[in-house]
Structure prediction request, 285 residues.
Amino acid sequence: MLVTGKELLLDAQKNKYAVGAFNINNMEIVQAIVSAAEELDSPVIIQASQGGLKYAGVEYIAALGKLAGRNSRVPIALHLDHGTDFDQVMQCIRHGFTSVMIDGSRFPLEENIAFTKRVVEIAHAVGVTVEAELGKIGGTEDHITVSEKDATFTDPEEARRFAEETGVDYLAIAVGTAHGVYKGEPKLDYDRISEIREVVDIPLVLHGSSGVPTESLQKAIPLGICKINIDTDIRAAFANAVGDFVRANPDEIDPRKILSPATAAMKEKIMEKMHIFGSVGKAWK
Ligand SMILES: [Zn+2]
Prediction:
């Protein structure tokens, strides 16, 4: 069933686990995610990034996501990842997304508040819940790049004010993760997560979580991280499986045969994440 992000994340917050948010670009990724969630009885968020929307188009993505939600026996939210502008967010809402992120992290605080608040008011009016970002998460995600020197950690007091004034439902914070592939091991600022959680009572979101050690994630979840975004690890599972298959079967031309091992590899990776996040068995309907 298709639900809002807020419904999933409030349960996660209450019961101290995190819901995985996995990026989708095509049917096989959606199938891998849904199949993993159903097998493990886990809630899940399927999300589309800027690159995903550009690649497949909002209508295909929305149709895939809504169908997945409608046919599934686990709760699924269809989420826009890093929405950059007002019009795009409205378009996704119109096409049936149940959750949207508006990323105003490039703006100074006051502007980010005003920008986010405008989206929150309209989204809430039609029953869609909203994620925003405060602080700047480094790295590259599709077309958005934030250099290491421009990445800034989230300030707890600013987070308190931001959550209060915008009415946002969940908040992405910058606490040491980055988008893309890590060069060294990422170090999470646990004290900062706790300090933010003390003054902000909405679910917190961790971006750039592929490649973050399991122990780090499991330490961050009880501190208030309720949504964990994973993209890079799934891409790697997909690409490796396709590469292996094509090398082993150079004459195979059937896309179904080429892609089936990739779907299975992505599913396995997603199930591994669900175990780490503690969302297994948490589907509440
Ligand atoms: Zn992100």
